[in-house]
Amino acid sequence: MAQEVANNELTPADIPSFKEVWSRIEPFALTFDGFRYWGSVEKCAEIAQARRPGSLTELRTCLFYEARRWKQAGKTPDLASMKFIRALVYAIREKVASGDTR
Predict the structure, then answer these.
(1) How many CA atoms lie within 13 A of 86 on its CB side?
(2) CA distance 29 to 45
């Protein structure tokens, strides 16, 4: 797994463009460990599968979960998933740029 980066340490330069390919987004997704943050795989999955991200932590949880899900499947995300992933990356960049790191 990539080295973890706390929300308050993120800068817009750390975040790939939402237009990037999966191989450039995935390493960033793994800079947050949703399993560790939420205390279990189950709680992380619950947050991610709700798909109602509001905070930076929830956004990063969703992105982390997608990275782990596709890695476990041994595949790259399909088009519908990439649309969701790119929306997450865009929202993460917006949060960090605005200083909203909660």
Answers:
(1) 13
(2) 15
Give the type of residue at 89. Answer: V
How many whole angstroms separate alpha carbon 65 and alpha carbon 48?
6
Q: How far apart are CA 41 and CA 27, in angstroms?
A: 19
**Of 61, 9, 8, 56, which Cα lies nearest the Cα of 32?**
61
- The predicted model scores a pTM of 0.95
CA distance 91 to 52: 12
| pLDDT digits 0-9 by tens, 39-66 | 999 999 999 999 887 899 999 999 999 9
DSSP per-residue string spanning 10-40:
--GGGSPPTTS-HHHHHHHHTTS-HHHHHSS
Rounded to whole angstroms, the Cα distance separating 19 from 8 reads 24
